[in-house]
User: Fold DMT family transporter from Paenibacillus nicotianae.
Amino acid sequence: MKGILFALLGGACITLQGVANTRISQDIGTWQAATITQLTGFIIAALIWLFVRDGKLGDYKKVKPLYLAGGGFAAIIIFTEVTAIQQIGVTLTISALLIAQLCLTFIIDINGWFGVVKQKMKMPQFIGLAMMIAGVIILKF
Assistant:
């Protein structure tokens, strides 16, 4: 249950961040909004880490360099989400974003990429994905 609550909170924050970034980008530009968002996120995460101290800073040496570059995706995420919200609105953007996430996670799970244990996807999972896609199509009209 705790995991579901964290997922719901994270999803709500993604939506709020997208809307805020879109508003910021209207005043100063999309890449500037991405920069401010990344900087703010870094500062808040660093402050939390200072209080929580749940790991050693030197532990990053254990992580593969490819995975350390993962934070760079955030700039692309912010830019594309802001641009999409400006063009198609919040609801359709978040719906499409969730479908894209789900499709890629299916591929990652099926193939066992990034050290994830391979999962078998069955018909109910594919039906659920198809229903989500149908829902976005219905939302668009």
Remarks:
- The mean pLDDT is 88.
- The two ends are 35 Å apart (CA to CA).
